[in-house]
Each structure stands twice: as structure tokens, then as C-alpha cells.
Amino acid sequence: MYTSENTIRVRYAETDRMGYVYYGNYAAYFETGRVEALRALGLSYREMEDKGIMLPVLSYQIKYFKPAFFDDTLIIKTTLKELPTGTRLSFHYEIWNDKGIQINEGQTTHVFVKVDGGRPITVPQEVIDKLAPFFKN
Amino acid sequence: MYTSENTIRVRYAETDRMGYVYYGNYAAYFETGRVEALRALGLSYREMEDKGIMLPVLSYQIKYFKPAFFDDTLIIKTTLKELPTGTRLSFHYEIWNDKGIQINEGQTTHVFVKVDGGRPITVPQEVIDKLAPFFKN
Amino acid sequence: MYTSENTIRVRYAETDRMGYVYYGNYAAYFETGRVEALRALGLSYREMEDKGIMLPVLSYQIKYFKPAFFDDTLIIKTTLKELPTGTRLSFHYEIWNDKGIQINEGQTTHVFVKVDGGRPITVPQEVIDKLAPFFKN
Amino acid sequence: MYTSENTIRVRYAETDRMGYVYYGNYAAYFETGRVEALRALGLSYREMEDKGIMLPVLSYQIKYFKPAFFDDTLIIKTTLKELPTGTRLSFHYEIWNDKGIQINEGQTTHVFVKVDGGRPITVPQEVIDKLAPFFKN
Q1: Can you tell me the ipTM of this complex?
Q2: Which residues in chain C have Cβ-Cβ distances shorter than 8 Å to A17?
Q3: Pairing with C1, which of B44, C46, D120, D134 sits 20 to 30 Å away (CA)?
Q4: How many contacts (CB atoms, under 8 Å) link A and D?
């Protein structure tokens, strides 16, 4: 298992009329979670795209437990539960506020594809090499 | 079963670096689907909130089939598969482009709560009354 | 002078904690104004980009008069006050709600550039041809 | 003069089809600039709103010099050029990338209003007290 944490501060722009973070905005927060999870491994998602591999989302689920509010500091815990094989990669996420209250949990599944042509490809060896040490028993 | 359709035009603002609609933006498209589904029944979500009842999201799932692009006209099909009972309401969504290609499918589950205090309440009678004719056999 | 109108419905996603449309979201509303202004002339901004010409923004100003709210129907009036010459194009915008109250006014100035290389180019002849009839005296 | 700096990392969500940060998204970046500028003074914008004073935007201008890209680290420099008097407050902003290239410059003007009723009020004494030391000659 590989876990990484990053924090974000809720922007006014991201709140809605209820005073809550709009339910659709957590997708962007989770994006920061997976980008930072990769960066902490020494992998740059931007460089991966520049090299011609992208990682579009196939599915996304989220359960909302508690609202988050303007100016809250949120901790995003991003986890890879399994070493990816084949063409897919799944991230699990939990968001917690700084009072120790869990805001939500979610999951995204992605597929590695070539920017040119959009064909699925197997997980790049570089990704496997960086992740493998976390999945030894 | 109750189904409603509305259309939206993809904004440049909603695309991302891949040229696709960003995966997080479909949540706002689905929001238009449920607001218009209620309006077509004669129910105003704004008025409901002004009367003190809101409908926050408990869970959200989406499967992405094909990308949508800038300036695409998208058809959002919003369905209530069951007459709500208790405190919850689920919407199913499908988004199709104007070439007849399905872009995604999703689901949100909501809970009726009082704006004052945030306590769950049972589905308002007005909602039941408007929906019931669609669920007679 | 050339003027075009389009309407949008305010989404919950676009409101903020004050219950107002977030001040940053009018930029996307104005975008719909200029895209529809071009479409009404028979010009597709998407096709223009697909042919290799894009229109990034050089400057943007907005004055806010009154707030807009969730579910408001807003009318966006987009105006070209002068026939463009050289490499630039300016749009003026006014947003009004359906009670006849003006919400804001704004302006964007754009430059025509080649997608390849990013060099400024003069206004495409097709744009001049479509606009010229509105600027005859 | 009072100046503060904060940094943000560009999210994929914030890019558009050109690969640039969408022109409308800088409004939210500037929002982080003014919230952090106030925080660095010991002022919490959230607390100010909770006490019944809000600071809606009256006008906003921005000039775009260079695009910003996904995953760029951006430095936001937020400046108050004058000690506020009356009911208004203006912030100036510059955004620079981490290669020392200036991305844009902007300005917002706000008015202090009571949440209850929306009447303009003079700049709270607490704000003056925190800012005054930066404006002595």
C-alpha cells in the first residue's frame, strides 16, 4: 500500500449557496491528491503527459460525510491499495478537516493511454519501479 | 419512472488541457439535470430552499465512456427510477452528445434536510404528489 | 455596432457562500456571450480554432452593480462597438436579470494568434466580411 | 504600502483546451492572494464574515501577459497601495511563475458591507490598526 498526504485551503470560489464546498469541487481536490502522490514518488504527471502518456478517468465515486467550509484546511489522503497491472490505476482518497473530522471518501479509476491515438497501454515501467517497494511483503 | 431532458452547451471554461470536459465538471451538468427535472414537474429547487428545505448530496458515482468537447451540445437525461420514500432521493443521469454517442452515466443520492438545524426530514408531500402519477402501474 | 443576446441560467455550482454568483464566474458567462455573438454571425469559434486561429484574452474588466442568484435567468448582451482592424478584437458585455436589473458590465480584448507558434495575425477576412454590414453608415 | 506573497500550484481542472489556465480562473487565485494578505496581518476574512461584515467586489481588472500552465508554481503578490479610508478597499495583484516570468497583473476594489441588510460601512478599525504601521512615513 502506498499513501501520500497533501493539504489544501478551501477557497471562497469553491463554496456554494449553502456555505459548503460544492459537491463537484472535490474532484479537483482529489486531482491534487493524485498529482502530489505521484510527485512524492518522484513522478511528474505533467512530464508523463509531455512524454505522450495521459491518464483519463474511467470512473469516480464519492461518499459525502460532512461539509467542508470556506478557509478550512483540508488533508487529502491518497492511497494506492494495489500495485497496478494491466492498463489501469485506481486511487482511493479520504479528506479530513483539521479538527479530525472526515469529510468524505472517494475513488477514481484511470487508464493509461497514448496521447497520440488514445490507445490504452500497460502501466509504464517507471511507475511500477517507483511503486513496487511499497508493495513488497 | 420519471424522466426529463435538458441540454447544455460545453463552455471553453469547462474544458481542460486534454481538450476534454474536465471530469469534475459533470457534477454541475448533472445539477442542471436535476434542477430541470424538478422544474418540469412544477417544482422549484430554489423555492424549496427558500422555504427551508435543502437537498445535499450523500453520494455520487459516474462512469465515463467518451469525452465531450468544447461547444458540444449535450443532452442530459435525468431519471427517478423509484418514488422516493423516507428521507432520500436518487437521480440517475445519462449524458449524450448530439451525434448519439453516450458520454457518461451517473447517479446522485440526496437527503432532504431542514436548513435550520440540518435534520433529515421525510420527502415533502408536494414532491410525492408531483411524482406519484409517473409511478402508477 | 453589432449586438447579440443569449441567456444562461445560474447554476448552484456558480454561487458562493454569500449566495451570490462568485465574482470570478462572470468570465465564463461572458465567454458564452462572445461565442454566441460569433455563432449568430455564422462564425464558429470552435471551427476557427480547428483551422489554427485562436483568440486569447489580453485584458478583462468588469464592474459589478448587483448580485445574481441561484436559478436566475440572466441575459448577456454582447456588443462589438467597432469593426476590428489590426490583430485585436474587443467585446463589451452587459448582464441583466429577468427583472430588468443590470448585474454588471464588462469588456474583454483579444488578439488573433496562430495556434502554431502563437504569432499575432490580422483579423481573418471571414470575420471582417460577416461584421462589415453592421458597421456601414 | 503593504505587500504579501503566497503560492499556488496550477490544477489540471484550471487549464483549458489551449493548455493555459483559463482566463476566468485568476479571479480565484487573486482571492487566495487577498485572503492570505489579510491572514498575514492577523486578520481572518472568515471571522470577519462570521462577525457580520463582508467584502463584495465592486470592480475587477486584469491584464494578461503570459499563459500559465498545468503544475506551474505561481507566486501571487498582493499589495495595498493606500491605507483604506471610507468604505472601500483596493488590492493590486501580480502573478509570476517560478521562472521569473510575470503572468498578469490585476486589481480588485471591494466595499465593506453589513451581512445584515447589505449597507456599506466604513473600514473596520481593526483593519486600520493592522495596516497603519505599513503606511507611516
Answers
A1: 0.96
A2: 12, 15-17, 19, 70
A3: C46
A4: 40
